[in-house]
Amino acid sequence: MIGGVSLEQNNLVEVLEPQRFDVELQGTSLLLLAFLKRNERFRSQTDVLTRACNGFGYPLECFVYDFDYLDTAMERFKIKGTPTFLLFSEGQEVNRLIGETDSESLEEFVRSSLEEDVATRL
């Protein structure tokens, strides 16, 4: 339970602790990681993440970074504010979305970021 939201019942979005990050990153071809503070926007942005992940489907795996380690993570990933969403493909960050969003915009962010990533690799 995080901020009144039970992510344990949601198999699409998991809480990611720092010690699991590198393991998940290497084992996942496509990873969306949300950095959310426990505030009045937490529940709505968690719902947005859940709907976007459900809408996008496999192979996207979605996580919320464990807020007990959020300050350290924000330093590590050079995040200036929350909410921030980082998209990783094949172990590399390909894009980030900063600020509140809705599920449709988050899905479009993932799709367009992947298209750009493929274009730059060609």
UniProtKB/TrEMBL annotation:
Residues 65-111 form the Thioredoxin domain. This is Thioredoxin domain-containing protein. It comes from Pseudodesulfovibrio profundus. The lineage of its organism: Bacteria, Pseudomonadati, Thermodesulfobacteriota, Desulfovibrionia, Desulfovibrionales.
